[in-house]
Design goal:
With about 200 residues, the protein is α+β, with helices and mostly antiparallel strands. The chain folds into 2 domains: about 60 residues, Orthogonal Bundle (Arc Repressor Mutant, subunit A), CATH 1.10.10; about 130 residues, Chorismate lyase. It has 5 helices and 11 strands; from the N terminus they run αααβββββαβββαβββ. Strands 4, 5, 6, 7, 8, 9 and 10 form a 7-stranded antiparallel β-sheet that branches. α1 packs across α3 and α2 packs across α3. The radius of gyration is 21 Å and the shape is elongated. The protein starts with a helix and ends with a strand.
Length: about 200
């Protein structure tokens, strides 16, 4: 069975990177330039770039300049309640009305006004490693315990944009809810961890 042309081009670009034609962090030519160099249309080059991003060879957003990816740091999450040890950026603090799911998690009426923040956790190289969106009602309170559930999701457009990945890329979603000493929920959060950058290790 013949190999699709965009896959052959992706293989060639990967070989050229290994040969040193482009260094880690260096931007590649535009899709238009490389399409002309390979004698294909831009759609074929788009598919090649998309494949290479999915494989972690290139990094960068759709329709923007891409560069040779730094080797992904694969971390292991063992404590979903631990503070992030590196730098982070708060990207959204707009209050939100509680969805039915959030209302159930926090024990509040649906549509109740919630405080909210989304934080982008950065690795030591400054690349996005995880997104944490947290919701709570009233003032933020200390907690005594927490519960967590794990599932896999496809990234939304906003999540993919923040993480530099493609829409529909797979990620872990950790739903963490914190409780006070009386067992009442104090806040709940979604931790979004790209599957190509994380392992999950469950403690006993």
């Amino acid at each position: 069975m013949p190999v699709a042309r965009y896959r052959r081009i992706a293989d060639d670009i990967r070989a050229r990177i290994a040969h040193g034609d482009w260094a880690i962090g260096q931007a590649l030519p535009s899709r238009r330039e490389l399409a002309a160099a390979y004698g294909v249309n831009e759609q074929t080059m788009r598919l090649a770039y998309q494949l290479l991003r999915r494989q972690g060879v290139l990094e960068g957003e759709e329709r923007k300049q891409v560069s040779v990816a730094h080797p992904a740091a694969v971390r292991t999450l063992t404590d979903v309640d631990a503070n992030w040890p590196f730098s982070s950026e708060t990207t959204d603090t707009r209050p939100r009305a509680a969805t039915e799911e959030l209302a159930e998690r926090l024990g509040v009426p649906a549509r109740a006004q919630l405080q909210h923040e989304t934080v982008e956790c950065l690795d030591p190289g400054g690349r996005s490693a995880m997104l944490v969106s947290t919701w709570w009602r009233g003032r933020r309170r200390a907690h005594s315990s927490f519960a967590a559930e794990l599932e896999t999701i496809e990234l939304t457009e906003g999540q993919a944009h923040a993480l530099g990945l493609l829409v529909d890329s797979l990620a872990y979603r950790v739903v963490r809810t914190r409780f006070d000493a009386h067992g009442a929920p104090t806040e709940t959060a979604d931790l979004i961890l790209p599957m190509d950058r994380w392992r999950i290790r469950l403690g006993c």
